[in-house]
Amino acid sequence: MDKRNAKYHLGQVVRHRKHPFRGVIFDVDPAFSNTEEWYDAIPEDSRPRKDQPFYHLLAENDESFYVAYVSEQNLVLDDSGQPLEHPDLHELFGDFREGSYPLQIHMN
Fold first, then answer.
1. pLDDT digit string (tens) for 80-100?
2. Which of 1, 73, 87, 95 makes the best surface tag, with the fewest CB within 10 Å?
3. In terms of C-beta distances under 8 Å and separation of at least 24 residues, what long-range contacts does 34-40 make, across chains too?
């Protein structure tokens, strides 16, 4: 079995390497686990490898809040020290401190 280690963890604030959004990680897939339709919608020259962790983010930009699915290669740690304003944050996480959000729910 191929074991993949995620670089980032639940509750950590990250930003996209190419696009102007930040988010907090609420789930991690050890490898691509979305639909082929979703993957094929990405321009071929920008498609990430499937054999890496993919992160589910409560994401935000200057215009909206949403859920994003992002490959590890396209994320970097957000070191701004600023909390996010996503309206769903407090359903999963406690208050922002020291650059991340502590989980407030029990995971299976």
1. 999 999 999 999 999 999 889
2. 1
3. 34/69, 38/69
pTM of the model: 0.91
Residue 105 has pLDDT above 90, yes or no: no
| Tokens (6 digits) for 37 | 């339709």
| DSSP annotation string for 36-72 | HHHHHTS-GGGPPPSSS-EEEEEEE-SS-EEEEEEEG
What is the chain's length?
108
For 14, half-sphere exposure in the C-beta direction (CA atoms, 13 angstrom radius) is 28
Distances in Å between the alpha carbon of 108 and those of 3, 10, 27, 63?
20, 14, 12, 33
Beta bridge partners of 84: none
